[in-house]
């Protein structure tokens, strides 16, 4: 026995000696500096609270938010919705062939556009004097609300009474990238957090096994503005959107590599977290806790994400209703996934569908053919999504937003001042249509009106900031008070603008 | 020449620091030399340069005053005290060098110079940063103790019942002007010579004349400037300041159209109700009862959260809680006991996808403020669901995908129920979509989108 304890003692002594040897003056100075810096930083970070309420601190001086960044900040007022599904038609859909019916435009079809409309305006491609082009779709008033829907959307007319239209949205950007950034981050330049990031920053996430903000893309391409449209900007990166794929692994590298069992993975993560916890005990830097949480979340996600992202388990009639194509990347699949994600407590689901840029330069980009195909691809899935959420009692807790980054001109595009091969319309930010549906939205409402040819809004013009203010309002946040301190000043999603669009609120 | 004048003028904020530095240097040297008295020569030299640079500062300051269009009242005190600083710096020089004014004690004159430079500097700061620059960060209580006006937001409180008897100016227009205009148009900071805090000020108008013209809103600048585009320099309030809402601007317009009366109630003046509806308190269709309740103890909430149940405040304005077992699919009937410490605060309860059975229904009766109840994808058959009829706030029950098979008429006895979701249950749709004459909507779902020919047409 004595022999054994001797060995143990010797080993312990050796360990201590090794540790002291390894500890150089450099280590000492480094840990001093980090310790002090960490102390200072952590007290600075913990001092700020965007909602101006004192925080409840746990025994170790940390708030619940430090331990779990996806816990909730109480919203300013009672939210109308718990989740958002944002359907973005990347490339900008033509409002004039979908919702904004302009019978007068038929009369002017083929006539030169009046100079007064062109003066001082910037267009992406239109040169000289373009010709006006009448609506290429047929319109009918649908539902009890009598709102106009074109024959490009034969299914959508069944849910027209569920949605509220914004007919005169305007933006000041006329190129895809900046306009998409503006639509999703409130600024046409890089660096601001996206709406989804703001929402998750504010409301966190209920399901501890899934990310709070999920992004799904379809149409063969990601948005022109790149991943910044779901980026977290200056918010902590834990709030950025997680892009999931409807084809192949839902999240890249989510599967364990060959030879790595789940058990081994668990032990690896436990070991890393143990070291991280020791590190935290030393420096008390909340970023370390966030790191620990991320590892654990990733481990849980490995099981939960493939499960929620699998649409094969859905009953046949649901698959048919959405028109899904399992195994492919499609907007229909993404709509069904959006429902499943929201059902599982995901806060913000962002769908981007690419291919709406109908200039008329190619067949797929023509107003009378390409656009019609795109409409068919979204018509059934969106209608199914609204109905499916409704029958599950989820529509009253969910906000659906539909739109593009801008609209399209009433003029036919004449790129290079020549006649184009197909019928097309150029980018146009002066007036375009968006719609919202779900909790807190006045069903069947239509706000805003454009002039006779759909060039500009004449009544009820709303800006991108107004749309943002309204989305935040429905999530329970006062867009003027929901701020984040960065570079010495508080930042808002709506900058210094934005007014809630009360006309479409229930 | 103008360019030079303006450029030199703009150097004033730079130049002023020279006399400040010299005077402080002189004062410090005087203090250091108070016993020995050996440095009089050096101190005199310092004050000489203080005087020279102060004169330079005066000149550049005057040029800036000329070039930048400040009104004389704004700069008056700073101007005179600046000149006095220059003069006194030279006097200090004379006193040290040539025993000028030797009867005045040195300590007293030094102290006076210190006071003078501080005062001048402060006045200058007030011009560039605004008069309340230093005071602004102080709490309201200290501000008012110091005699500064504190800005208080005034609320418009109108209701369905009292809007007609509210005083149009005092209860409606004044709060709008107070919240959006008065912070710049008050006696302390009367931008554009306009005062909007009082009836007299509004009637008097400002630099550009009348701001209200009775019965003609479009000619009244107080209104028309609010409607200018944001990037117009004449737009009021200026960019960056809190803007009045559309509804508030409409009220100002209506008030002027009615002849901008300062007396009389809304009813007497006869304005339309639509103008005021946006200011009525919102009817709450929220996930909690419209009552006040004491907060649940943080320890109870913490204990429940530690079991993995999600507890979430509904909002910062209420103590009601939303509870979700989304992360606890193994939640069983007896686990409801865990929630009893916060039973009064739970208004939204999500037990969807858990192991609960009909036995939970009896226990749910002990949650008096339950408003939204989710029992979807559970084994609830609904045989005793009627026991929940006494929950007078219960608004929504979601039974989607549950084993529910009871007669839906049972919901008719519920007090405040609005929505029941019965999609994918064992009850079949029997044509009933609502109960209690439409008050309760029953949603059986099963919506369909039958195929149509155009589904497969590719263009």
UniProtKB/TrEMBL annotation, chain A:
Domain of life: Bacteria
Record InterPro entries: Alkaline_phosphatase_core_sf (IPR017850), DUF1501 (IPR010869)
Organism, as annotated: Pseudozobellia thermophila
Record-given protein name: Tat (Twin-arginine translocation) pathway signal sequence
Annotated PANTHER family: BLL7424 PROTEIN, DUF1501 DOMAIN-CONTAINING PROTEIN
From TrEMBL, chain B:
Pfam family, one: PSCyt1
Organism: Pseudozobellia thermophila
SUPFAM superfamilies registered for this protein in UniProt: RNI-like (SSF52047)
Keywords: Heme, Iron, Membrane, Metal-binding, Transmembrane, Transmembrane helix
Protein's name according to its UniProt entry: Leucine rich repeat-containing protein
Domain Cytochrome c: 142-260
Bilayer-spanning residue ranges: 14-32, 44-65, 77-93, 100-119
GO MF annotation terms: electron transfer activity; heme binding; metal ion binding
Top-level division of the source organism's lineage: Bacteria
């Amino acid at each position: 026995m004595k022999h054994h304890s001797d060995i143990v003692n010797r080993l312990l002594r050796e360990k201590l000696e090794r540790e002291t040897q390894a500890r150089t003056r450099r280590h000492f100075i480094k840990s001093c500096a980090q310790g002090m810096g960490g102390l200072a930083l952590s007290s600075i970070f913990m001092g700020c609270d965007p909602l101006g309420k004192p925080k409840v601190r746990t025994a170790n001086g940390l708030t619940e938010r430090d331990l779990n960044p996806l816990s909730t900040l109480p919203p300013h007022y009672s939210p109308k919705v718990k989740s958002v599904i944002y359907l973005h038609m990347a490339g900008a859909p033509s409002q004039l062939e979908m919702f904004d019916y302009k019978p007068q435009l038929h009369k002017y079809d083929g006539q030169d556009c009046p100079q007064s409309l062109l003066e001082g305006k910037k267009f992406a491609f239109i040169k000289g004097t373009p010709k006006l082009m009448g609506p290429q779709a047929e319109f009918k008033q649908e539902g009890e609300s009598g709102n106009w829907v074109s024959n490009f959307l034969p299914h959508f007319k069944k849910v027209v009474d569920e949605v509220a239209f914004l007919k005169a949205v305007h933006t000041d950007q006329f190129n895809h990238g900046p306009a998409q950034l503006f639509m999703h981050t409130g600024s046409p330049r890089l660096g601001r957090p996206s709406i989804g990031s703001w929402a998750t920053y504010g409301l966190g996430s209920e399901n501890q096994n899934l990310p709070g903000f999920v992004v799904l893309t379809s149409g063969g391409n990601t948005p022109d503005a790149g991943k910044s449209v779901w980026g977290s900007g200056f918010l902590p990166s834990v709030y950025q959107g997680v892009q999931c794929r409807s084809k192949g692994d839902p999240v890249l590298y989510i599967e364990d590599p060959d030879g790595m069992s789940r058990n081994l993975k668990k032990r690896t993560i436990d070991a890393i977290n143990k070291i991280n916890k020791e590190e935290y005990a030393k420096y008390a830097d909340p970023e370390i806790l966030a790191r620990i949480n991320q590892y654990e979340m990733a481990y849980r996600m490995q099981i939960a994400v493939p499960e929620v992202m699998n649409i094969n388990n859905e009953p046949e009639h649901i698959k048919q209703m959405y028109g899904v194509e399992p195994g492919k990347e499609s907007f229909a699949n993404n709509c069904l996934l959006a429902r499943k994600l929201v059902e599982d407590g995901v806060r913000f689901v962002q769908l981007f569908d690419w291919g709406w840029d109908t200039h008329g330069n190619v067949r797929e980009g023509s107003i009378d053919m390409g656009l019609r195909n795109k409409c068919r691809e979204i018509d059934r899935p969106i209608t199914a999504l609204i109905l499916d959420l409704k029958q599950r009692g989820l529509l009253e807790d969910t906000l659906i937003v539909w739109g593009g980054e801008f609209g399209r001109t009433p003029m036919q595009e004449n790129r290079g001042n020549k006649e184009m091969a197909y019928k097309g319309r150029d980018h146009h930010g002066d007036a375009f249509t968006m719609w919202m549906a779900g909790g807190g939205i006045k069903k069947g409402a239509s706000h805003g009106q454009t002039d006779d040819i759909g060039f500009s809004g004449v009544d009820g013009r709303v800006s991108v900031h107004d749309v943002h203010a309204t989305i935040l309002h429905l999530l329970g946040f006062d867009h003027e008070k929901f701020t984040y301190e960065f570079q010495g000043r508080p930042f808002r999603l709506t900058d210094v603008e934005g007014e809630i669009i009360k006309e479409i609120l229930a | 020449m103008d360019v030079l004048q303006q450029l030199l003028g703009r150097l004033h904020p730079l130049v002023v620091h020279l006399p400040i530095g010299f005077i402080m240097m002189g004062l410090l040297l005087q203090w250091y030399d108070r016993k020995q008295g050996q440095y009089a020569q050096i101190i005199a030299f310092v004050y000489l340069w203080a005087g020279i640079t102060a004169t330079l500062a005066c000149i550049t300051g005057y040029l800036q005053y000329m070039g930048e269009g400040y009104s004389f009242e704004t700069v008056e005190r700073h101007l005179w005290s600046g000149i006095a600083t220059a003069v006194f710096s030279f006097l200090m020089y004379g006193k040290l060098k040539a025993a000028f004014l030797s009867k005045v004690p040195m300590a007293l004159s030094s102290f006076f110079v210190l006071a003078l430079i501080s005062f001048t500097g402060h006045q200058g700061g007030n011009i560039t940063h605004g008069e309340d620059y230093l005071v602004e960060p102080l709490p309201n209580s200290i501000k008012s103790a110091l005699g500064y006006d504190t800005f208080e937001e005034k609320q418009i409180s109108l209701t369905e019942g009292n809007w007609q008897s509210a005083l149009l100016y005092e209860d409606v227009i004044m709060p709008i002007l107070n919240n959006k205009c008065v912070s710049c148009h008050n006696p302390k900071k009367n931008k554009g010579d306009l005062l909007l805090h009082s009836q007299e000020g509004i009637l008097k108008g400002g630099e550009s004349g009348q701001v209200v013209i009775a019965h003609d809103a479009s000619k009244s600048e107080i209104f028309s400037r609010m409607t200018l585009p944001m990037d117009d320099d004449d737009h009021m309030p200026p960019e960056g300041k809190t803007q009045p809402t559309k509804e508030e601007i409409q009220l100002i317009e209506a008030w002027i159209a009615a002849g901008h009366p300062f007396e009389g109630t809304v009813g007497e003046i006869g304005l339309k109700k639509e103008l005021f509806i946006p200011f009525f308190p919102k009817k709450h269709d929220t996930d909690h009862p419209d009552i006040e309740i004491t907060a649940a103890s943080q320890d109870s909430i913490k204990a429940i959260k530690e079991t993995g149940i999600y507890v979430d405040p509904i909002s910062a304005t209420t103590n009601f809680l939303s509870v979700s077992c989304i992360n606890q699919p193994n939640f069983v009937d007896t686990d409801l006991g865990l929630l009893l410490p916060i039973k009064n605060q739970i208004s939204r309860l999500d037990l969807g996808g858990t192991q609960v059975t009909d036995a939970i229904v009896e226990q749910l009766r002990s949650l008096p403020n339950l408003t939204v109840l989710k029992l979807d994808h559970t084994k609830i058959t609904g045989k005793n669901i009627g026991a929940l009829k006494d929950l007078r706030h219960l608004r929504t029950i979601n039974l989607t995908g549950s084993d529910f098979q009871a007669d839906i008429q049972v919901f008719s006895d519920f007090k405040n129920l609005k929505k029941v979701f019965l999609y994918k249950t064992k009850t079949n749709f029997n044509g009933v979509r609502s109960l209690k004459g439409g008050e309760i909507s029953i949603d059986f779902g099963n919506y369909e989108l039958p195929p149509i020919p155009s589904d497969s047409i590719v263009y």
